[in-house]
């Protein structure tokens, strides 16, 4: 019973649920505010993503007459629930250790694929030609960036297992514990190509410029999300906010689980999350233009895949 209560708390309260949603929306607010200031604009208030979500919750969700209503409404629910579970799998060094019943790093990888699949389903269920085009683009970009992240995770798992005298470990808890005892992989040269590959992965997974191709507003009018409104669109916003916390938290757990125990450790983690968001999302979004889908596909099959493979080879050869 105590394990079940711990899981419910982790999923719905902390570090998932309300905490993760508030953090994710806050990160998006900071991203928009900082971006506006760097462009010489006043920008929206930090709480604007919260206001947007409340506004959507009071609006009516319109369904296209030719859409599959069950699938249309099911896609955002599945996407949001998957990220609600995923955020409870991400450890916070010195503060939170995921319950073993929730799963390990492999489960987290599977859950990270669900939002992309949910967007594809949403695009196909909406019966919109823009949604269908967004479906195709989302599928192609997923095929491109999933390969590098699998190799990155494999490199970290093999490296941790080898350093512990074993073969491989897919437990994020063990990976974090080893780094806290022996030093972060951020300072291990063997891991540097994997870190670079992950740095290229997370903007694409979060769907920001230059990898926001499936939802390009100026080309396909939000693509899969074009026909969504009201609470259904709000669930996609929730999914996006939670996914930002999951992906950024995963990067910290894999390579830089710094910080003391207790409340200071949580503050350190929050600062790391904010820095990664502003440097890895806001800075990239402001300094680059959108790629074409063929350019993004070729880019991921070349640089991130090559870097992740190099790190994996270095781990095996060490």
Automatic annotation (TrEMBL):
- What Pfam families does this protein map onto? NADHdh
Topology of this chain in the membrane: Multi-pass membrane protein
PANTHER family listed in its UniProt record: FORMATE HYDROGENLYASE SUBUNIT 4, FORMATE HYDROGENLYASE SUBUNIT 4-RELATED
Residue stretches spanning the membrane: 6-27, 71-96, 102-122, 143-170, 190-211, 232-256, 262-284, 296-317
The subcellular location is: Membrane
User: What species was this sequence derived from?
Assistant: Consotaella salsifontis
Q: Does the keyword Nucleotide-binding apply?
A: no
Keyword list (alphabetical) reads: Membrane, Quinone, Transmembrane, Transmembrane helix
Cellular component GO terms, alphabetically? plasma membrane
UniProt superkingdom: Bacteria
| Molecular function terms, GO-annotated | quinone binding
**Protein name, per record:** Membrane bound hydrogenase subunit mbhM
Identify the InterPro entries for this entry.
Answer: ComplexI_Subunit1, NADH_UbQ_OxRdtase_su1/FPO, NADH_UbQ_OxRdtase_su1_CS
């Amino acid at each position: 019973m105590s394990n079940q209560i711990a899981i419910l708390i982790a999923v719905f309260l902390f570090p998932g649920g309300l905490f993760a949603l508030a953090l994710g929306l806050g990160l998006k607010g900071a991203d928009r505010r900082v971006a506006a200031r760097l462009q010489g604009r006043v920008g929206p208030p930090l709480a604007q993503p919260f206001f947007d979500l409340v506004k959507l919750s009071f609006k009516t969700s319109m369904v296209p007459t030719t859409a599959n209503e069950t699938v249309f409404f099911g896609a955002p629910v599945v996407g949001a629930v998957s990220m609600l579970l995923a955020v409870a799998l991400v450890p916070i060094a010195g503060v939170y250790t995921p319950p073993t019943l929730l799963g390990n790093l492999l489960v987290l990888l599977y859950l990270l694929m669900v939002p992309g699949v949910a967007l594809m389903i949403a695009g196909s269920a909406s019966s919109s030609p823009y949604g269908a085009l967004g479906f195709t683009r989302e599928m192609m970009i997923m095929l491109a960036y999933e390969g590098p992240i699998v190799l990155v995770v494999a490199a970290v798992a093999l490296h941790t297992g080898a350093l512990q005298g074993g073969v491989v470990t897919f437990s994020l808890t063990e990976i974090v514990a080893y780094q806290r005892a022996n030093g972060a992989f951020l300072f291990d040269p063997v891991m540097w190509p994997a870190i670079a590959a992950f740095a290229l992965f997370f903007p694409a997974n979060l769907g920001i410029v230059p990898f926001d191709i499936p939802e390009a507003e100026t080309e396909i009018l939000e693509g899969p999300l074009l026909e969504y409104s009201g609470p259904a669109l709000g669930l996609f916003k929730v999914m996006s906010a939670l996914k930002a916390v999951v992906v950024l938290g995963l990067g910290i757990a894999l390579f830089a689980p710094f910080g003391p125990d207790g409340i200071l450790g949580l503050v350190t983690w929050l600062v790391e999350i904010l820095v990664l968001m502003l440097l890895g999302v806001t800075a990239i979004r402001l300094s680059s233009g959108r790629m074409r889908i063929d350019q993004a596909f070729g880019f991921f099959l070349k640089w991130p895949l090559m870097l992740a493979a190099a790190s994996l080879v270095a781990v095996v050869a060490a």
